[in-house]
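Figure-free illustration: sequence to structure, shown twice.
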Amino acid sequence: MPVSLADSGPAVALLRGLGAADIAHPGGTLLAHLQRVQRQLAAWGARPALQLAGLCHAFYGTDGFPGALLPLERRGELAAAVGAEAEALVYLYASCDRSATYPTLAEADGPFRDRFTGLSHTPEPQSRCDFAELSAANETDLARLDPAFRDRWGPELLTFFTRIRPLLSQPAWSDCQEVVAG
């Protein structure tokens, strides 16, 4: 079930207030990308907290998109807008040191390195699946809209998605195959 406008309204207002509608991003603006990621997660049947995390996944920057909208010291502002669970997923996504984490992400005890602290931990199975699903929604949005991105990164993304297949829902896996391999 898609997140209602009332549920995502505070997050969209915060995104607009922090300039996400003015930041260029493949497919238009950062805000447009974030809204597409949220819609993609909804189409895959993600629960509301994960959809909200999809809408807000770039708040603290990421390993692949360094520009943060909000410093980590202000995490409470995002939590107030989307709830503690969604904010924790945003932090998890933003904190991922991809080169250290991706190779063993699908392993139940695979370490997850926090790029902000340098420390590693083992996420719970649901958090690991949420991270994978959000990663798939983000990357397939970019690949769907930007042929140069798909040509450059498609084979590597397909290898990554294949490795984390056990963590992905069937709709997410189907889209990953269609978008990056198609």
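We now fold a second protein in the same way, so the two outputs can be compared directly.
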Amino acid sequence: MSEVIAGVEIPDTTLVREATELVRDVAPPLLFHHSRRVFLWGSLRGREQRLDFDPELLYVGAMFHDLGLTKRMRRTDQRFEIDGADEARRFLHAHGIAGEPADRVWTSIALHTTPEIPLHMAPEIALVTRGVELDVLGIGYHAVSDEERAAVVAAHPRPDFKNGILAAFTEGIEERPDTTFGNIKADVLAHCVPGFRRTDFVEVVKDSDWPE
């Protein structure tokens, strides 16, 4: 029997069940509940905007989007978003989903911290970003009703979430500071890691090997 939260049905499929168990196994509760909320917020925003989206693909994108912050899934040689995107694509391939649908999920995760661009792409890509923006930044907070918001948070609580998610970001990226060049996660390290100095785009241009 499908689970329904705030009027959103969690797809009752093998793909969704196994994605849920994988994330529950490797991610701390803070990231698990955050990821489920991202799916729910994304679904609610998609309904509000009358978008035609695949709920299974949206679910995998939402659930895997922060796996690159976890101890078991993170690397140190690339952006954390790509860690999660790569893992999602491997997971989908193992379940017989390849080609454009798998690439769509990969893109939804890889671009979820890149403002504005995902919102002009396929619905699943846009809605992962919508869900993340609502849960982390409060963007679109009033686009869902008070009742919907209360139901989602009752199912997936967010105690001290603001401090907790910033700590999770810091832990997941502090060993690869260079990967924050040009993206919003440099702000996290600037606030949370003493001595961090962000790479300056203008300095990179001026210091390149080109003579002029």
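Summary for the second example: Residues 66 and 84 are 6 Å apart (CA to CA).
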